[in-house]
Design brief:
Helix content: 25-40%
Low-confidence stretches: none
Largest sheet: 5 strands, mixed
Bound molecules: oxa(dethia)-CoA
Structural class: alpha/beta
Radius of gyration: 19 Å
Number of helices: 11
Oligomer: single chain
Distance between the termini: 25 Å
Mean pLDDT: 97
Length: 326
């Protein structure tokens, strides 16, 4: 069977309406707008209402993506949801989303931290390249507000809720030119949610010790992030048969402006080639790269033929990068 080119046929994103600013957080923990903004670049984030779960945000993003691809849910062959905040352990959020959309295709979730969307795009692309499927919905959806410790100032100021959705399909020209995936499980302890799984099932002790919330060693994740952003970007560009100068737009995972600026400096690329929207959304984990791609598109920063590098890193530890020709 011939290998087919795979591209983006539609894109969507959704953020919940409730805005929480740094000033709002000053009232919850001992922090300041000045500290948060200078250390991270974040001004505000979106937070889902208590009755909204990841599948709800994912549904809204998916509807927009389907419309932009001119497809109906019945046209979908597969749904992949990248998330670290599934609605529940099982059923998979992809199956919950399938039901909400009224689709009939298979679906599964994928866990790769903030690299989730890039991992999921690479998995979806294989099914299309080999001819098994034609239309695949890939979602990065998170309600991180539900696993944030709102008493821990070192993490609660960083994250937000969002979903992004991409429809993959076969294309005649352009499409994905390379994928790079990586993991270092030895670094898993640097960013984890310790309890609630089979290692530490929910108990009175795990709850009283607040082990169902995100725990992170920010400094070490920062160092890891700066290194892998550079390495994965260069590897993906090289695999695509391109050089740094060929890339029109860099879409990095939106975790911290200092990480993005360090990556730009190490790569010797002007900072304005890096798309940034973390000031308005914070770190939305697997939703972040898709949300940035969506906004970059609607801001007119992407045209037919544009060469885009997407790069992310996160829990696992994982990293991923890809080059997409629009
Ligand atoms: O998607 C992947 C997810 N993770 C990341 O991308 C995180 C990567 N890491 C980071 O972005 C940064 O490490 C942080 C933003 C998390 C922290 O910035 P930092 O410059 O590495 O600060 P730090 O952790 O070294 O803390 C500096 C000080 C500490 O006080 P002392 O020990 O120097 O007295 C903290 O207690 O800042 C204090 N601090 C805060 N102060 C006010 C930590 N959080 C806050 C806060 N407000 N929210």
């Amino acid at each position: 069977m011939p290998i087919r080119k795979v591209g983006v046929r539609g894109i969507g994103a959704y953020t919940p309406p409730k805005v929480v600013t740094n000033f709002d957080l000053e009232k919850i923990v001992e922090t300041s707008d000045e500290w948060i903004f200078t250390r991270t670049g974040i001004r505000e984030r979106r937070i889902a209402e208590p009755d909204m779960a990841t599948s709800d945000l994912s549904y809204m993003a998916s509807k927009i993506a389907l419309d932009s691809a001119n497809l109906t849910p019945g046209d979908l062959d597969l749904i992949i949801v990248a998330t670290v905040t599934p609605d529940m352990f099982f059923p998979a959020t992809a199956c919950i989303l399938q039901d909400k959309l009224g689709a009939t295709c298979p679906g599964f979730d994928l866990s790769a931290g903030c690299s989730g969307l890039i991992y999921a795009l690479s998995v979806g692309a294989q099914f299309i390249a080999n001819g098994m499927y034609d239309n695949i919905l890939v979602v990065g959806g998170e309600t991180l507000s539900k696993i944030i410790d709102w008493q821990d100032r070192s993490t609660c100021v960083l994250f937000g809720d969002a979903a992004s959705a991409v429809i993959l399909g076969p294309v005649d020209t352009g499409g994905f030119r390379s994928f790079v995936l990586g993991a270092d499980g030895g670094g898993g302890k640097l960013l984890e949610l310790p309890a609630g799984g089979s290692r530490l099932p929910a108990s009175y002790e795990t709850i009283s010790q607040r082990l169902h919330f995100i725990k992170m060693n920010g400094r070490d994740v920062f160092k890891f992030a700066v290194r892998v952003m550079e390495e994965a970007s260069l590897e993906a560009i090289d695999k695509a048969g391109l050089t740094l100068k060929d890339i029109d737009l860099f879409i990095p995972h939106q975790a911290n402006i200092r990480i993005i600026e360090s990556a730009a400096e190490r790569l010797n690329v002007p900072k304005d080639k890096f798309f940034v929207n973390l000031d308005r959304y914070g770190n939305t984990s697997s939703a972040s790269v898709g949300l940035a791609l969506y906004e970059a598109f609607w801001e007119g920063k992407i045209q037919k033929g544009s060469k885009i590098l997407m790069v992310g890193f996160g829990a696992g530890l994982t990293w991923g990068a890809c080059v997409l020709e629009w």
